[in-house]
Design brief:
About 30% of the residues lie in helices and about 25% in strands. It contains five helices and 15 strands. The strands form four sheets. Strands 8-7-9-14-15 form a five-stranded antiparallel beta sheet. Strands 1, 2, 4 and 5 form a four-stranded antiparallel beta sheet that branches. A three-stranded antiparallel beta sheet has the order 3-12-11, with no helix packed on it. Bound molecules: magnesium ion (2 copies).
């Protein structure tokens, strides 16, 4: 495993990419209303990051199996879709939760962030799922600092989710990020034997995309026939939040919060 640590200057470039990602997600949040199709949101998101001079990282992202790369600009994941949903003619309805995941590259450096938008009257238990998943990301941010092992942070994240009885998705994890979107290390939201044997010591200059995914029911997921869309096996809703985060000398800095 080769973790590339970034200089202050490189982190500055990643923040510039992160600002555009934040702008795209803000645009999605404002426009995610009943009656709007996910395709309309995907198209307008493309306009937002292109106007800012960035390149989207998701369109044509290669698949691990035969066939086409990812066909859309964002991942838009509605209700039981956990991640990697593909925009289409689906019209958003009151009560939906809609995950938006955006990655862009600017001046050679990447930013990656995701949020889940609650549309109108969301069922209380689903609202709590979203709020808790976002709180899990915030708890990770509060606990990332040099000298910590990632497993210590992951345990905190997992405990919050499991205390609420949520399924913690095992099949997808966060990742290192830099000049490419996916770098070493893998950044799980749970503690496994594998993580404990290959733990990551957090050091200044490490940049991670941390992305908790929680399911209202089972942690089991499956991929649809399109090769991308990941859904919960029990069709209960899932929430997903993500930030690109740089480890600093005394803590961490969120690069995708719009600052
Ligand atoms: Mg992402
Ligand atoms: Mg990511």
């Amino acid at each position: 495993m080769a973790i590339k640590r970034k200089t202050r200057e490189e982190i500055g470039k990643m923040r510039a990419a992160g600002r555009i990602v934040h702008k795209v997600l803000q645009h999605c949040r404002e426009n995610c209303k009943p009656g709007v199709t996910t395709k309309e949101l995907d198209d307008s998101a493309y306009e937002v990051f292109t106007a800012a001079g960035a390149r989207g990282l998701f369109k044509n992202y290669p698949t691990y199996r035969e066939g086409e790369g990812f066909p859309a600009n964002l991942c838009i994941s509605v209700n039981e879709v956990v991640v990697h949903g593909i925009a289409d003619d689906y019209k958003i309805k009151d009560g939906d939760i809609v995950g938006f995941d955006c990655g862009v590259q600017l001046d050679g450096w990447c930013g990656d962030s995701a949020t889940t938008v609650m549309v109108g009257n969301v069922a209380p238990e689903v609202r709590k799922l979203c709020e808790t998943t976002e709180a899990i990301l915030m708890a990770a941010i509060e606990n990332i600092r040099p000298g910590r092992k990632w497993s210590q942070v992951a345990r905190i994240m997992q405990n919050i989710a499991e205390r609420e009885g949520y399924g913690v998705v095992r099949d997808f994890v966060g990742h290192g990020i830099g000049q490419t979107m996916h770098e070493d290390p893998k950044v799980p939201n749970f503690v496994s034997r594998d993580l404990l044997m290959n733990d990551i010591e957090l050091r200044e200059g490490i940049v991670l995309a941390v992305e908790p995914m929680c399911n209202l029911g089972t942690d089991k997921v499956r991929t649809l026939a399109d090769g991308w869309t990941v859904v919960t096996v029990d069709k209960k809703p899932a929430a997903h939040y993500e930030h690109t985060i740089a480890v600093t000398a005394d803590g961490c800095e969120v690069l995708t919060d719009g600052n």
